[in-house]
Amino acid sequence: MDSLQTKNNTSNLQSQKLQLTLDVSESKATELKNEVAELRNAIGAIQRETGALSGELKAVTAENERWKTDFEQLTQAIKPNSTQKK
To answer: Is 73 exposed, middle or buried, given 0-12, 13-18 or 19+ CB atoms closer than 10 A?
Structure first.
């Protein structure tokens, strides 16, 4: 009978150990799921910011091209006047 009690106690201890391990695993899994959700939110914010910056860059590039064209036209307009005055 004593042997049966010992086996029962051992079995109970093993069950408790397995339950603790399972609890820790579930806790870690929940923690990792939360971390993944936070990372997805951060990635989404970065992608939105990247899209906005890309749009701004395109607008600035187009504006720079207009300025370059205007500058070239003004430079061409000034050149004949400079040579005529000399």
So the answer is: exposed
